From TrEMBL:
MF terms in GO: hydrolase activity; RNA 7-methylguanosine cap binding
UniProt signal peptide: none
Biological process (GO), any one: deadenylation-dependent decapping of nuclear-transcribed mRNA
CC terms in the record's Gene Ontology section: nucleus; P-body
Pfam families listed in its UniProt record: DcpS_C
Species whose genome carries this gene: Palpitomonas bilix
Designated name of the protein: M7GpppX diphosphatase
Domain of life assignment: Eukaryota
Length: 124
C-alpha cells in the first residue's frame, strides 16, 4: 500500500498482483466524513487530483501499467460508505467499471470545477 496524508492505495483482495489485465486496486480516502461522491465539494479538488496523479505514478512504478490503461472511478451508490476510487485496467473484465453506478474520477473533477457544490445539489 502507498500512503499519503489524505488517502492510501491498496491492492484489492481479488487481484493476484501478476496479470495487469486483472488489476484491481482501491484509493481509499482517510477522512471518515467522506462517505460518497455527494460529500465532495470544490475544496476536495486538490485531493482528487492527487489521487489521480499518485495512482498513475504508483501503478506505473509498481505494476508497469501506464496511465492510458487505467480506469479510475467511483461507485454511486457505493458498496461501503468510505469514499474510495476503484482502479482497474481498461482491458480487464471487471464488470463494475461499466455498471450504471460507475462515475469516472475525471468526470467528478470536471463537475466540481464547474460547480463546487455539484454533488450536494445532485438529485441522485
Amino acid at each position: 500500500a502507498k500512503y499519503d496524508d489524505g488517502f492510501f492505495i491498496s491492492r484489492h483482495f481479488r487481484y493476484n498482483g501478476r496479470d495487469p489485465l486483472q488489476l484491481q486496486c482501491l484509493a481509499v480516502m482517510r477522512d471518515p466524513s467522506l462517505m460518497t461522491i455527494r460529500d465532495l465539494r470544490s475544496h476536495h479538488l486538490p485531493l482528487l487530483r492527487e489521487v489521480r496523479e499518485r495512482t498513475y505514478s504508483v501503478l506505473q512504478e509498481k505494476c508497469g501499467v501506464e496511465k492510458k490503461y487505467l480506469r479510475l472511478y467511483f461507485h454511486y451508490p457505493p458498496s461501503y460508505h468510505r469514499l474510495h476510487v476503484h482502479i482497474t485496467h481498461v482491458g480487464g473484465n471487471d464488470k463494475s467499471q461499466s455498471a450504471p453506478r460507475a462515475v469516472m474520477l475525471d468526470e467528478v473533477i470536471d463537475n466540481l470545477e464547474r460547480d463546487g457544490m455539484y454533488y450536494a445539489r445532485a438529485s441522485k
